[in-house]
Amino acid sequence: MAYDPGALDKTLAAAAGDDNRLIAELRAAFYESAQRHVASLHNAVNDQQWQVAAWRLKGLAASFGVTDLMSLAEEASEGTPFSRTLLRRLDKAMASFARENQDGE
Fold it and tell me: Comparing C-alpha atoms, which of 64, 60, 69, 66 is closest to residue 15?
């Protein structure tokens, strides 16, 4: 699943208007927070930690309208904890977001 920048861009534009500096700051804050939650999934040592990290990632993605990432986080919360396949898909989505973020700067 590749990252779709459209929803995030619309959400940020609605929040910040034409203030490109604020949009960049909000985008960076979203990315950093998402990265922390994905790292928490990677570092989870029990089912509860995995579940909490998945819910937090899902909530963050939902707040910013990033439905692709939200779907992956929901899959994590409802699926088998510690899924290496799902972690790779999350890492791929975050790498795609990072590339898009660099291209947009």
Answer: 64
Structural domain count of the chain: 1
Q: Which residues constitute the domain of residue 17? A: 5-104
The pTM is what? 0.85
The 10 Å Cβ neighbour count of residue 79 is: 13
Count of alpha carbons within 13 Å of 57, Cβ hemisphere only? 32
Q: What is the pLDDT of residues 50-104, one digit of tens each?
A: 999 999 999 999 998 899 999 999 999 999 999 999 999 999 999 988 887 676 5
